[in-house]
């Protein structure tokens, strides 16, 4: 095997079958072709995370969205896989590497409500659809009167529930809405002070077999995004979070080489256990990890 990876024919890029997954995979495919001149074809891989017959409160299966794509990579059925980075488990998988992290989209969550209403303007007791403990926590902290309605399905299914009047609003990642060209549905980009985004929200991970394609994928890697996401995700391993823990983490540049990391851990009733911000000099991955570790230490001290 060479660093070039397969040399004959187009690169096979594995993607989940949802419109969002295919859209963001095509974006990555196009940028690989633009940067390297190599043809890239999408290969749809069905994943357990797409199975809506599995109840949301079933025991958590970390990485359900990513597992089948990773199997396809390890079995050499595809050469690359594109993941929403926030769906990727924090533990590395032997044999696979995140070869590229393209520039991140808007990391915030977005409110999509009927009649263009903002969060403040939603009527008392309004029904808001989300199944994310992190979003529930932030929403209830801001508006304890809201009625939270568990919801799942793809972006368009969720938006339809607002149009059909099943709920007054839904909360979705701004990045997904933007990539799908559904930005017009957004009635408020929710400030990170109200709902802190999930670690790595808005970022994509391009995974391939370790040792293959590294130099070609470097062409679409965004070092600043990589450092942000490294800091945010180091928190997940640091506090041993599962995907049902309400954990938010957002890293923002406050100066050249100076990263501020904010982390919040809360329960689903909106009672904040802890929210911590800390800034530090970050120019390499190790410093990003250290910043995350320092925040985790502070969180642990705070919560004991
Ligand atoms: N858990 C599903 C998921 N994974 C990634 C995104 C959006 C895109 C992104 O965060 O990059 C979504 C949908 C959502 O949260 O609204």
TrEMBL record:
Q: Which Gene3D superfamilies match?
A: Periplasmic binding protein-like II (3.40.190.10), Porphobilinogen deaminase, C-terminal domain (3.30.160.40)
GO MF, one example: hydroxymethylbilane synthase activity
Chain ranges of the Porphobilinogen deaminase N-terminal domain: 11-211
Tell me the residues on which S-(dipyrrolylmethanemethyl)cysteine occurs: 243
Query: What InterPro entries does UniProt report for this protein, alphabetically?
Result: HemC, Porphobilin_deaminase_N, Porphobilinogen_deaminase_C, Porphobilinogen_deaminase_C_sf
UniProt GO cellular component terms = cytoplasm
Q: Any idea where the Porphobilinogen deaminase C-terminal domain is?
A: 227-299
Q: Name one GO biological process term.
A: protoporphyrinogen IX biosynthetic process
Listed SUPFAM superfamilies: Periplasmic binding protein-like II, Porphobilinogen deaminase (hydroxymethylbilane synthase), C-terminal domain
Superkingdom to which the source organism belongs: Bacteria
Keywords attached to this Swiss-Prot or TrEMBL record, sorted alphabetically, are:
Porphyrin biosynthesis, Transferase
Cofactor remark: Binds 1 dipyrromethane group covalently.
EC number(s) given by UniProt: 2.5.1.61
Cofactor(s) needed, names only, are: dipyrromethane
- Which catalytic reaction applies to this protein? 4 porphobilinogen + H2O = hydroxymethylbilane + 4 NH4(+)
Q: Its biological function?
A: Tetrapolymerization of the monopyrrole PBG into the hydroxymethylbilane pre-uroporphyrinogen in several discrete steps.
Question: Could you give the subunit structure recorded for this chain?
Answer: Monomer.
What protein family is recorded? Belongs to the HMBS family.
Additional remark text: The porphobilinogen subunits are added to the dipyrromethane group.
Put simply, this protein is called Porphobilinogen deaminase
- UniProt organism field: Brooklawnia propionicigenes
Upper lineage is: Bacteria, Bacillati, Actinomycetota, Actinomycetes, Propionibacteriales
């Amino acid at each position: 095997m060479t660093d070039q990876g397969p040399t004959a024919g187009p690169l096979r890029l594995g993607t989940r079958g949802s419109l969002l997954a295919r859209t963001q995979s095509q974006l990555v495919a196009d940028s690989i072709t633009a940067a390297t001149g190599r043809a890239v074809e999408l290969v749809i891989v069905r994943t357990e995370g797409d199975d809506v017959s599995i109840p949301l409160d079933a025991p958590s299966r970390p990485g359900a969205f990513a597992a089948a794509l990773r199997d396809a990579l390890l079995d050499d059925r595809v050469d690359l896989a594109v993941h929403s980075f926030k769906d990727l488990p924090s533990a590395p998988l032997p044999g696979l590497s995140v070869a590229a992290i393209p520039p991140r989209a808007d990391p915030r969550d977005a409110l999509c409500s009927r009649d263009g209403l903002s969060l403040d303007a939603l009527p008392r007791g309004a029904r808001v659809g989300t199944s994310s403990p992190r979003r529930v926590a932030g929403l209830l902290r801001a508006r304890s009167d809201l009625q939270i309605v568990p919801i799942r399905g793809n972006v368009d299914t969720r938006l339809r529930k607002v149009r059909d009047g099943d709920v007054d609003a839904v909360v979705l990642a701004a990045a997904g809405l933007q990539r799908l060209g559904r930005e017009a549905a957004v009635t408020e980009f929710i400030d990170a002070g109200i709902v802190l985004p999930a670690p790595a929200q808005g970022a994509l991970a391009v995974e391939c077999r370790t040792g293959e394609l590294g130099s070609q994928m470097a062409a679409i890697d965004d070092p600043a995004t990589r450092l942000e996401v490294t800091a945010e995700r180091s928190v997940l391993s640091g506090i041993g979070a599962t995907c049902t823990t309400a954990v938010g983490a957002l890293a923002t540049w406050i100066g050249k080489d100076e990263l501020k990391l904010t982390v919040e851990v809360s329960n689903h009733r909106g009672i904040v256990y802890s929210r911590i911000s800390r800034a530090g000099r970050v120019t390499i991955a190790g410093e990003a990890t250290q910043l995350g570790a320092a925040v985790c230490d502070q969180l642990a001290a705070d919560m004991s």
